[in-house]
Structure formats: C-alpha cells, structure tokens
C-alpha cells in the first residue's frame, strides 16, 4: 500500500472500516472470515489543493480563484495525518467499533470558507468561483469529468454526505484534529499557485 504524503488535505474522505484479522498460529494472513466484519476498504485520495489543478489559479485580472462546482454547499475535509490519528483513536477503544464504518472529517466547509482561509494563509485574495458541475466537467484536464460527477454528488446530497462524517466523533477519536486554517499554516508553501 502506498503511503499518502502528510501535507495533503482531503476534501472528501474515506470511511474507516474496522476489521478483525486472523491471529491463530498458522492461520492465513488477512481478514478473519469467521469475524463479523468485512474486508478493509483502502483509503483513496480525493481532490485536494496539490493535484488535478485543484488549487487556486490566477484569473485574467491576476486574482486567485478556487473553483468548485459546490455552490454554497459544504464539503468535508481532513488532513492526511489526521486520518491516521482517527484510526489510532478507533483502535484504542478496543472492540467498540468492530464491524462499524466510521466516517471522519476535520471540518465541513463551503467554498467561500475555504477561499477565506486561503486568503488569510497566503496573504493574498482568493475568491471562490462556483461553477455548475457540467462546466467543471468540460474543463478538459485529466479526471475533470469524474471530479465534476463526484462534486455534483456531494453538492446534491450534502446532508447525507456530511452527515455520514461526524465532526464530534472525529474530534473524540482525535482531540488534536487540525482545522483547515491550522493545516494551511503548516503547508501553505506546498500549494502550487498557477
């Protein structure tokens, strides 16, 4: 499994699935088929500020813009290192979460809130540029169509998507959970500005 760099901030996040593994001597490594849990789902990186051209870009007037097809809807986000800390919190609770899926998030932010945090961290104006999903899908970069579909789902089903990622549970698992602003303080210099 490839390790994610710590300086990522995921705008959508995986669920953490807790699985019991076979531990008997001579048992085949992997999920215990007798345990009441499914196999683990790998973490997938989602669009963040480091790739897919997802960071702020300069417009014709030179002002940076963060473009998302989210309208005024919120999007869950979390720092990569906080995913591991939340998982550690789950394991420290013993059997409480065995067989359960735990959605985690650091915050649920609108595009306007993300742009305001970027403005503060980068010390230059960053505007939020809300576009319809069909416009985003037409941008022509690799993955634009898939990302447009993903953002549209998250926009159209915001209550469900954010509701499945409890901030209270995430904070109880990881009391040092970073806000987007805290993450930006540490990693703002890694965001490519185009």
CATH homologous superfamily heading: NAD(P)-binding Rossmann-like Domain
Mean pLDDT: 79
Instruction: Extract low-pLDDT stretches.
Output: 1-7, 20-25, 32-47
Adjacency order of strands in the biggest sheet = 1-5-7
CATH class call: Alpha Beta
Cα gyration radius (Å): 18 Å
Class per helix and strand makeup:
alpha+beta
Major β-sheet profile: 3 strands, antiparallel
User: What coarse outline follows from CA principal-axis ratios?
Assistant: globular
Number of domains: 1
Q: In angstroms, what separates the terminal alpha carbons?
A: 31 Å
Topology:
Elements: E1 9-10, E2 15-17, E3 57-58, E4 64-68, E5 74-79, H1 80-92, E6 101-103, E7 107-110, H2 111-122, E8 126-130, H3 133-137, H4 144-156, H5 158-163, H6 167-173, H7 180-187
Parallel strand pairs: 4-8
Antiparallel strand pairs: 1-5, 2-6, 3-4, 5-7
Helix pairs in contact: 1-6, 2-7
Detailed description of the structure:
The protein has 194 residues and is of the alpha+beta class. The protein has a single domain (9-16, 45-187), classed as Rossmann fold (3-Layer(aba) Sandwich), CATH 3.40.50.720. The protein is 33% helix and 15% strand. The chain is built from seven helices and eight strands. The protein is globular, with a radius of gyration of 18 Å. Residues 1-7, 20-25 and 32-47 have low confidence and may be disordered.
Summarize this, please?
The chain is α+β, with helices and mostly antiparallel strands and 194 residues long.
Relevant terms:
194 residues; Rossmann fold; three-stranded mixed sheet; disordered N terminus; three-stranded antiparallel sheet
């Amino acid at each position: 499994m490839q390790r994610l760099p710590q300086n990522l901030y995921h705008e959508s996040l995986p669920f953490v699935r807790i699985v019991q593994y076979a531990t008997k001597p001579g048992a085949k490594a992997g999920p215990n088929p007798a345990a009441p849990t499914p196999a683990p789902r790998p973490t997938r990186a989602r669009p963040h500020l480091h790739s897919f051209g997802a960071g702020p870009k300069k417009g014709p007037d030179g002002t940076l813009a963060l473009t998302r097809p989210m309208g005024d809807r919120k999007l869950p986000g979390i720092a990569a290192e906080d995913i591991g800390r939340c998982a550690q919190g789950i394991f420290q609770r013993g059997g409480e979460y065995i067989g359960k899926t735990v959605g985690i998030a650091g915050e649920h932010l609108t595009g306007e809130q993300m742009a305001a945090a970027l403005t503060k961290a980068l010390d230059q104006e960053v505007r939020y540029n809300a576009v319809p999903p069909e416009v985003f899908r037409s941008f022509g970069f690799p993955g634009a169509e898939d990302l447009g579909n993903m953002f549209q789902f998250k926009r159209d089903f915001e209550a469900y998507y954010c509701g499945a990622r409890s901030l209270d549970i995430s904070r109880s698992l990881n009391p040092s959970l970073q806000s987007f602003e805290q993450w930006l303080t540490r990693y703002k210099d890694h965001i490519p500005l185009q």
